[in-house]
Design a protein that fits this description.
The chain starts with a helix and ends in a 12-residue tail after the last helix. The protein has 15 helices and no strands. About 70% of the residues lie in helices and about 0% in strands. The longest helix is centred in the N-terminal third of the chain and has 28 residues. The protein is mostly helical. Helix 11 packs across helix 12. It is globular and about 60 Å long.
Amino acid sequence: VPLYAVVAAGVLAHGIEVLRGRPADPSEPVAGGLEWGLMGLVVLYALQASYSHDFTNALEQLVFFYVPFALVFVLLRRIHWTRRLLLACLGVLVALAVVFVAVGLLEYSRRELLLNPKVISANMVESYFRVNSLFFDPNIYGRFLAIVMLAVTAAMLWSERRREIVGAAVVLAVLWVGLMTSISQSSIAGLLLGLGILAALRFSVRRTLAVAGALVVAGAVFVLVAGSAIRVDLSSSAQADKATTGRYNLIRGGIDLFDQRPVTGFGPGSFALEYRRREKSSSESAVSASHTIPITIAAEQGVAGLVLYLVVLAAALGRLFGRGIRESPARMAVAAGFGALVLHTLLYADFLEDPVTWTLLGIGTALAAADARSRTGPPPGRAGPDPA
């Protein structure tokens, strides 16, 4: 709710500027493939909601997520992100993350959660205890911590002051403890990918790929040889589903739904309803997605939705990892955070439903445009951008 108030204030301020006849800012980024792709996804979602088998859920997603967060993207890409502003935002993120971790540790020490009855019930029957702090979902809590950790790591990698490096290391240690109490495997995977991106950009792509490849091979060998020691058994569908905490059946069910309606899909927001209907179960195990965003989109929106998703993803990666990224620690932090988020959505859910996605794209777009202007020279009547 506070976020909606901030978005409304930003839109109102922009509207007042337009009504006063303020001339367009010549330094504002020009709309490209990313902007058109995002608009296409939102419009397609709205059109397909008309035949969704769960219209109420589709309407809620559109009104509370897609439309307001698209406005966030539009507003953020217009901002001139100076180094001072970026550091101030990073400070706010770190402060929030530390508060969230403190709440999470309190939950962990008391073995009591503040939110989400489903997680509370799950903790009662499992041998481990997951915290979600002030988030409704432990995995979204873990995603937030992972992205903040990547931003702090980027600042630490390019800092030359020992005090700043030590302070960043302390913050990372605190956030790591919080991430561990969430027991979010998808968040840890996203964090590792983001760290790999930062290492490749800061040091060497070839060496980073070599180390990552070696770790993947070692992990695969360990799972094949001693998977039972960590309860990872992929020998059958039932065991695979158990090892992936239900994701295997959800993914298989999503693929089957796509096979039934590959062109139109069952409509936005309908995955959980159709999955339960297909399995002839009233169980809430389907949650709200297949835990793999492309499969969820394919089942709900068909080929058109899947193609637009891939277009947006390609355009976003091209924008964030474009020319000049190695000269901007801020751009590298945004790119690493987005990479971690994309992997997280492949293992869990919430791509355009998460405001962090739109925020990273908006800031990354503004920074990329500022870098492009710095190489070609500022527009008439404007000084060059403050390097970030």
